[in-house]
Amino acid sequence: MPPPFSTNTIVGRNRTNIVIASVARTPIAKFCGSFQGLRAPELASIAIRGALSKLKVDNDILISEAIMGNVVSAGQGQAPTRQAVLGSGLPESTVCTTVNKVCASGMKSVMLASQTLHYNSGGGGAILAGG
Questions:
Q1: 108-127: per-residue pLDDT in tens?
Q2: Which end of the chain is more exposed for a tag (fewer CB within 10 A), N or C?
Q3: Contacts of 47 (CB under 8 A, 6+ apart)
Q4: H/E element holding 65?
Q5: CA quadruple 90, 91, 96, 98: dihedral sign
Q6: What number of other Cβ atoms are within 10 A of residue 62's Cβ?
Q7: Burial (0-12, 13-18, 19+ Cβ within 10 Å), 73
Q8: Strands 63-69 and 126-130, bridge-based pairing
Q9: H/E/C letters for each residue in 86-105?
């Protein structure tokens, strides 16, 4: 069973297109294997930092929102997405949502991020999505 959080994507919008700006993932490990000492939000924080480090921008990109999938949240504490975002160093002002969908919660998170950017008429901006 792969970890509940495994990939993170930064979805951004320029004036005309919604694009995936960066991608990162944690390595795959077996159930009760090398990651057993880490909780899902801790793994997600590592992947978030990895995705942020790959961005090729001169100034800080403003990630206004994070949408993450986490299916088995028992024992993870409240708001696993919030824990991951704060653990990665993003600001407390980041809006956080956790998607609990048994199949493809990470993909649904990316879809929700894309829809949010599409309907946000302000243009620009970035959303962290994954799971």
A1: 999 999 888 888 766 667 89
A2: N
A3: 5, 6, 7, 8, 24, 25, 26, 130
A4: strand 63-69
A5: positive
A6: 12
A7: middle
A8: parallel
A9: HHHCCCCCCEEEEECCCCCH
